[in-house]
Design goal:
132 residues; mainly alpha; 5 helices; 0% strand
């Protein structure tokens, strides 16, 4: 009995530890084939939103996006997500809604790029990740 409990616990720990790993190949696969899959439009929109948020986070960590810029960019990302949730109330997205969300995300990505390239920087704490 103890052996069964031990094996179940070790399997669940391993699953929790490795289940959240994503690989670049999966992202490439998702970006290439997401629109062909059932419900692919929503998956593609979610993937684009995730990529935009990752770009914002990378800019914050590197210090290339200031606090005010990040506040504005994240606010815009939240508005896009809210809009998507409103559109998804009926369980699907129309072509018009998909195009509008993609246009909004494209605008967000343009703003992210502009904020990354301007010469405003914020101080970076290089020791922030070292927490013992």
């Amino acid at each position: 009995m103890a052996l069964i409990v031990f094996s179940l616990v070790s399997v669940s720990i391993a699953n929790a530890q490795y289940s959240n790993r994503t690989y670049a190949r999966n992202d490439q696969y998702n970006s290439r084939y997401a629109s062909k899959a059932r419900g692919g439009a929503a998956a593609e929109i979610n993937m684009l939103q995730k990529q935009a948020r990752e770009r914002i986070a990378d800019g914050i960590v590197s210090g290339r996006i200031t606090a005010n810029e990040s506040k504005n960019l994240l606010s815009l990302a939240e508005k896009i997500e809210w809009k998507e949730n409103q559109y998804m109330r009926n369980g699907r997205l129309t072509n018009r809604e998909i195009n509008e969300l993609k246009k909004d995300i494209h605008h967000l990505n343009n703003l992210i790029t502009r904020n990354l390239k301007d010469h405003q920087t914020s101080p970076v704490d290089h020791n922030a990740r070292r927490r013992f």
